[in-house]
Amino acid sequence: MKKILLAGYYGFGNLGDEAILEMALKQILEITDRKNIIVLSGNKEITSEKYNIATIDRYNVLSIIFKLRSTDAIVFGGGSLLQDITSKRSIYYYLFLIRLAKMMNNKVIMLSQGIGPLVNENSKNAVKNTLKLVDYITVRDKHSMELLEEMGLDKNKIFLSIDPVINLRAGENFVNKTSGRKKVCFSLRNWKNADVSCKISNVAEKLIENNIECYFIPFYYNEDLELIDQVEKNLGGRAVYYKERLTTNDAFDIIKGMDVLVGVRLHSLIFAASANVPFVAVSYDHKVDHFVNSVNMKVSSNIDDIDEELLFNEIIDKINNEDFEKKKLYDNVSRLRELIKVNYQILKEI
Predict the structure, then answer these.
(1) Which terms are listed as keywords in the entry (predicted)?
(2) How many angstroms separate the CA atoms of 268 and 255, rounded?
């Protein structure tokens, strides 16, 4: 049985990354046993308890070196690890892990990666030079593939896949609601100087006036709760606010009961797609655009220029055309789910 070190942005309470971890484990367990997997985590105790898996502190370099002496491969399970927009330092952490793993004679497999944006020339050169060492890379969108090809990486090592979270709870039967008030869920995030809380509050207020229930859910608890508090100050008790730390299953269960999800967070949109809940996307990053395009849709607006009237009208349109929207989303998600098969094929090469 192969021994695997699994790396990513795990243990920080971001539901998107935790869902990636769940799906990465599911894929890796196809080729090895749970006892042969070690996860790098920002909170090793919580990750170990939650997933019944061995963990080590992602910042303990000596422990990582020790583990790499006995593993066969390091696997990066997905996400936007190689970008320099939200962090200038994390990209070098992951590049360091790649080089360290190769020094220790491990294979390096990167699954369902979103590459970029890379705005710093030094970052771009570092990614280009380091990724040449990687054995296989699957990417979650065509843009990432094109970026790697522009860097001159071997096309035989690059494959188009999809974010693994698209398979979250795949196969479940989701029963459509037949009565009651319509429900809209919002998954927001702050971004630079964008006035998100005010504009979204205005949209929600108009929905409430039209007898539509509004819910607000945190996907990255440490960042999103402040924004939800701001919305609550505007709307008071006329909406529902989830302020506890949710699990991926909690969030999925909430979203699957909605008629529409309005999402800024990428993985809130992917949760909705997996649950076959029509969504309206507000983009803060190209990765949102890429996913929305992959299901043959367009983003409603960019986060720094939210058109309140357009956003409201798109939500109402989704509600009024529910059957059509669900059928279209289901067909596109079914097509995307076929792409994840390449991840399993590559893992079998370890």
Answers:
(1) Transferase
(2) 8
